[in-house]
Design brief:
mainly alpha; about 230 residues; Endonuclease Iii, domain 2; Endonuclease III, domain 1; globular
Length: about 230
């Protein structure tokens, strides 16, 4: 039993070192990146809904159609058909219009006051968000990290693809990978933001569905698994 426990601890330490190697290699190559382009906290929340199952370029097209007038009151007061037409470029616009209204109602339940929201623990806020229609793990963590600046690691398709190809056995499910990263990295929203930004950027440049390995900073370590 002691030998098995020692082996498991050694394996976990190796995985943590591999994760650190990925972080340091990407950082050395890309320097200080940050992800989630948005002008306000509420724009981050809206973007977290709109980006579901679509590329960020489509989200940008939808955001532009608000013509600079994007606020909780407007989302709540817009007739559903008008909201659907505005966000049409983001795809799944019928569902997302309902999700936007639901998450906006939740946000305004706190009067849109971030300090009031942060009076509660991260776990409690996350649990509340997951009860909101249309909010799953990735969306909840995106809102927590990028809108509220709370240390909740975001796992997305880029993260899962990178870990699979590298490979690094961080887990098979969203929560397993999230837990591994949060335990391995310093519990700091800036670190999570930075690491996720590096993963996203490298995923767009190189670690795509169809691999573009030439010039990838991780190429010498990566096993290029499908």
């Amino acid at each position: 039993m002691a030998r098995r426990l020692h082996f498991r601890i050694c394996c976990e330490k190796l995985l943590v070192r591999e994760l650190e190697k990925i972080y340091q290699t990407l950082y050395s190559h890309y320097d200080d990146l940050k992800w989630w382009p948005a002008a306000s906290i509420f724009e981050v929340i809206v973007g977290a809904i709109l980006t579901q199952n679509t590329a960020w370029t489509n989200v940008e097209k939808a955001m532009e159609r608000f013509e600079g007038n994007l606020s909780p009151s407007r989302i709540l007061n817009l007739p559903i058909d008008e909201l659907q037409e505005i966000i049409r470029p983001a795809g799944f616009y019928r569902q997302k219009s309902q999700y936007l209204k639901a998450v906006t109602e939740w946000f305004m339940g706190y009067d849109g006051d971030i300090d009031l929201i942060k009076n509660y623990s991260l776990q409690d806020i996350r649990a509340e968000l997951l009860k909101v229609r249309g909010v799953g793990n990735e969306t909840a963590d995106s809102i927590l990290l990028y809108a509220f600046d709370l240390p909740s690691f975001v796992v997305d398709a880029y993260t899962m693809r990178l870990f699979r190809r590298y490979p690094i056995d961080a887990g098979k499910t969203y929560l397993e990978v999230k837990t591994f990263c949060e335990e391995a990295l310093p519990r700091d929203a800036k670190v999570y933001n930075h690491f996720h930004a590096l993963i996203v950027h490298n995923g767009k440049e190189h670690c795509k569905k169809k691999m573009a390995c030439s010039g990838c900073p991780l190429e010498e370590f990566c096993q290029k698994l499908p």
